[in-house]
């Protein structure tokens, strides 16, 4: 059984033929050219798909993209970095152009589906996926199905407020989870602390251009024993812990799968989070609590899009 998985990004369209048992067996990448307009991009996606279909028997297409996606997984609203895409039934547009049924989904939900079908999430019936990348996204898997909410937009975990006096991010208010754990916001927080410690090796490395400081630099420094880097990651991990408590108390889901560049800090981030959970989570919810790291890497989006197609068209 084979499907096409598509990862629509601002820079590239990635597409792959994915076998249910073997995983990715063929792939292609082409520049997005979103600036040339909606119709051009839809044609370009369809041409990329068609180049893969010729030698395979495909049952359906799944596509991940940024933006809010309708509950029926057909329409995206106001996706960032896609000019002219106000409200687009992308699933129908792709079906008309390729002749193959298509479903679409928000990129964070796609990551959750990738983990459920091909990653560490396979061992859980229910889990919450948190993507710690440029921003913070999320996807909720409940009893092996993606939880979409009443209008399809559930899982905006990065916009949960943990301190309304806290820093700004892309959210409409201060102190959201993303303001502490999104890549550029974590880097901004780190730069403030490093600038107050001119004797630290991180200061001499980045003082001339803190814009080059990334979470991976903190992780590498922490592995080398840099106490300030360890402290910065621990403070962020504590904020993560408070966020996890909110999610558990609200959803009664105790398994968490973390992915994205920030999550590569591993136990420098996870252990402080677990300490907060042990201290502040209501006792009955602690049973079965677990944090695991997802390492599907760059294939995560393609595999998740394929998982969407398998869920939608395999029956």
TrEMBL record:
Pfam families per UniProt: ROK (PF00480)
InterPro entries cross-referenced by the UniProt entry: ATPase_NBD, ROK, ROK_cs
Chain segments annotated as coiled-coil in the UniProt record: none
Domain of life according to the entry: Bacteria
PROSITE patterns recorded: ROK
Gene3D superfamilies: 3.30.420.40
SUPFAM superfamilies: Actin-like ATPase domain
Family: Belongs to the ROK (NagC/XylR) family.
Name by which UniProt lists this protein: ROK family protein
Species whose genome carries this gene: Gracilimonas halophila
């Amino acid at each position: 059984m084979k499907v096409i998985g598509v990862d629509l990004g601002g820079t590239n369209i990635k597409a792959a033929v994915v076998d249910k048992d073997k995983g990715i067996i063929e792939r292609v990448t082409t520049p997005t050219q979103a600036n040339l307009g909606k119709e051009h991009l839809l044609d370009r996606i369809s041409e990329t798909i068609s180049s893969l279909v010729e030698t395979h028997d495909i049952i359906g297409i799944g596509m991940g993209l940024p933006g809010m996606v309708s509950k029926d997984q057909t329409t995206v609203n106001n996706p960032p970095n896609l000019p002219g895409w106000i409200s687009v039934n992308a699933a129908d547009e792709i079906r008309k152009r390729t002749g193959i049924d298509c479903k679409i989904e928000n990129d964070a939900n796609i990551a959750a589906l990738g983990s459920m079908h091909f990653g560490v999430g396979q061992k859980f019936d229910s889990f919450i996926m948190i993507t710690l990348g440029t921003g913070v996204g999320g996807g909720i898997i409940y009893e092996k199905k993606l939880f979409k909410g009443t209008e399809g937009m559930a899982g905006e975990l990065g916009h949960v407020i943990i301190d309304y006096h806290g820093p700004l991010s892309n959210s409409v208010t201060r102190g959201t989870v993303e303001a502490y754990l999104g890549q550029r916001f974590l880097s901004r927080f780190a730069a403030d602390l490093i600038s107050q410690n001119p004797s630290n090796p991180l200061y001499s490395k980045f003082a001339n251009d803190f814009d080059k400081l990334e979470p991976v630099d903190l992780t590498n420094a922490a592995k080398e024993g840099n106490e300030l880097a360890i402290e910065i990651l621990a403070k962020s991990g504590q904020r993560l812990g408070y966020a996890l408590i909110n999610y558990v108390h609200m959803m009664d889901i105790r398994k968490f799968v973390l992915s994205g560049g920030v999550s590569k800090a591993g136990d420098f981030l996870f252990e402080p989070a677990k300490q907060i959970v042990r201290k502040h989570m209501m006792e009955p919810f602690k049973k079965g609590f677990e944090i695991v790291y997802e390492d599907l890497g760059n294939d995560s989006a393609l595999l998740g899009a394929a998982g969407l197609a398998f869920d939608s068209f395999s029956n």
